[in-house]
Every structure is written in structure tokens, then in C-alpha cells.
Amino acid sequence: MDCVDEIFALFEHHGKSAYFGEPVSQEEHALQAAYFAAEDGAPEALVVAALVHDIGHLIDAREDAADRGIDARHEDTGCQWLGRHFPPAVTEPVRLHVAAKRYLCSVDPDYLRGLSAASVKSLQLQGGMFTPEEAAEFLRQPFGNDALRLRRWDDMGKVAGLAVPELSAYRDALWRQLRPRT
Ligand code: FE
To answer: Which range marks the domain in which residue 172 is found?
Structure first.
């Protein structure tokens, strides 16, 4: 199975599960995040990153590892898995999307107030808000700004019943963003 088919299979088998305390499924959440990225004029690599940003949760579900610890660090699982096939423009915003939340909470009180209850709860498991030193360090990362953009679409992608393009609409974009074979 090629990588793009594998992504489709992950969504097919594990995408219907609920997205932690939100009124959407994992797949709906992913499709909405990608939709908002495209609406915002994001480059295709970042739209693809938005689509697959939580794929670590689907991999954990496949491997039945979701309850192996208090925080399975799905951003690292996803980044590593995707990194076999996709370049840093896709994998780095995925890896940093949880850190982006910790950053935004530390610098933007409105952002913190606007988080859903489930997202506030997971913030604690993810290490809480950044210290000023950690926040400065975050901004120095090459894809930090992309991760901040992704985070906003991530937070928006929790709308029950929103009509957005389906997964098949992204097949060509996924193919185009694969790392060229050497
Ligand atoms: Fe998400």
C-alpha cells in the first residue's frame, strides 16, 4: 500500500471516532482544519499539514496505544510517521502544533479564554503554557509560524455538521506534497 492509500485507510478505519470531547469525528476535524487552511490561502503543504495534523491519534488508535500513558504525544507519532514520505514543510507544523497551543496560551489571554473545555484539559497533560523563555525558543523554530497558523485552523475545526470537501478532494494534493524520491 502506498503512503497516500495508507492515510486514506487510517481515516477509513479510525476516523469515525469522536474527537476528544468535541462535537465532530476525527475525520470531520481533519477535513475542517484543511478547509479553513485553504480558505485562509495557505500554501498546499500547509493545507496538507492541517489535514494530517492529528494523524498520530489515528495511528495510536490502530496500534491500540491511546491509553499507554497520560499523553501519547500524538504530534511526535504523526511527525515521525509522516516523515518517511513528506518533507519538513508538512511534518514540522504537525510536530509543533501542540507547542503552538502552549505558546499561544502563554502570550494571548484571549486565546486561552477561547479554548474549548476539552482543549484546556489537554493543555495540562501537554505541559501547560510556556514560560517566556520557552515561548521565545518556540518562535526561533523554522516552522513555528506555520504551526501557529495551523493551530488556529485546528481550533476552528470543531463545528458540528459543517459541510466541507471530503477526503478524496485532497488525494492529488497529498501526492504532490510527497518528498521526491532520491
Ligand atoms: Fe487537532
So the answer is: 3-15+22-154+166-177
Half-sphere exposure of residue 96: CA atoms within 13 angstroms, side-chain side = 27
Ligand 1 centroid vs 180 CA: distance in angstroms? 27
Q: What CATH number does residue 75 fall under?
A: 1.10.3210.10
Residue 55 CA, ligand 1 centroid: distance in Å: 9
Over residues 130-154, the pLDDT tens digits come to: 999 999 999 999 999 999 999 999 9
Could you tell me the distance, in angstroms and rounded to a whole number, from the CA of residue 15 to the centre of ligand 1?
12
- Specify the amino acid at residue 139: L
CA of 154 to the centre of ligand 1 (A): 5
Phi/psi for 88 (5° steps) reads: -55, -30
Is there a domain that residue 182 lies in? no
